[in-house]
Amino acid sequence: MKMNQFFLGVVAFIALPMVVVQAEAAQPPMKEVKSAKGQVSSANVFNRLLKKEKERNMAPPEDGVHDPDNDNTHVLQPPRIAYDGLPTSDFGNYVDWVKALNDGLIQPRYDRFDPTVEPLVMDLDIVREVKASVPDVVFPHKPHTQWLHCSNCHPKIFIPQRKANVINMSAILLGQKCGVCHGKVSFPITTKSCKKCHSKAKPKDWKPPQSEASLKNPWR
Ligand code: HEC
Ligand code: HEC
Ligand code: HEC
Hints:
Blueprint: H1 3-15, H2 20-26, H3 79-82, H4 97-102, E1 125-128, E2 137-140, H5 141-145, H6 169-173, H7 194-197, H8 212-216
Antiparallel strand pairs: 1-2
One heme C is lined by residues 128, 130, 132, 134, 137, 167-170, 172, 178, 182, 189, 191, 193-194, 196-198.
């Protein structure tokens, strides 16, 4: 909401009970602010999962993603029916997909055309020590390679070499690095999901890194 719209709203709110008729005549109608469907105009707008939803897992014609005028949208199975019985989580579409896969509740095809192709699973954790006081990030290859071929990430999103990539939250929230998928097709970045990635506690003796200049300056 723009500032002038905000003030217009405040003025309307105060004035309305007193002079309803006058206020209506004197003020131009408030412009309806539509959600930016499919538009990428600023940080996070693309991330439909970050917007507070009216209801969880709405049916395709009401979810704001599918075209309600297309007949086939109404043929799609509503998520609440499709997800019934799957382990739950606190964010995204409220399904713990990693657990659902490990418990054998879903058997996604690794190859769209050949149902016999098995995934190439690699069990390698990459720890990224975070300079800030939040817990360190563990990137687990296993839950990724159970569904995704290496080429989904290497070499275009990440150079396959530990610490060769610059990753930070701004990039992720802008839809780069981990954010190419997280917030779009896999669990989103919400205050409840930080711990999924920031899962390794800092060592007890951890201190925030300081530059040489700040260490030399006794006033800091
Ligand atoms: C979802 C994305 C993703 C997928 C899929 C993925 N990787 Fe990675 N890989 C990463 C990230 C992130 C790193 C860490 C890079 C860093 O620290 O800068 C990494 C690091 C690596 C490294 C470097 C390890 C080291 O110790 O230096 C190798 C090798 C690697 N990946 C191989 C693979 C192979 C082989 C596959 C497929 C079986 C695969 N990766 C699938 C994201 C992925
Ligand atoms: C999808 C995984 C993921 C999620 C979810 C996530 N982070 Fe991060 N975060 C990262 C990665 C990767 C880095 C970069 C680590 C490094 O320095 O190598 C990072 C870095 C950070 C940093 C250091 C500053 C920076 O931007 O690099 C802070 C602070 C941080 N995260 C806070 C949070 C908070 C708070 C949340 C929850 C709202 C959160 N993160 C959720 C992956 C994630
Ligand atoms: C190519 C897409 C893609 C990229 C890039 C990607 N992820 Fe993921 N990630 C997934 C998918 C798909 C899953 C499994 C489904 C889910 O949990 O949403 C997953 C799962 C995870 C999990 C497992 C959560 C659990 O329940 O055990 C963690 C942790 C994670 N990602 C962290 C990261 C971090 C950190 C990065 C960046 C360094 C990253 N991911 C980059 C697609 C991706």
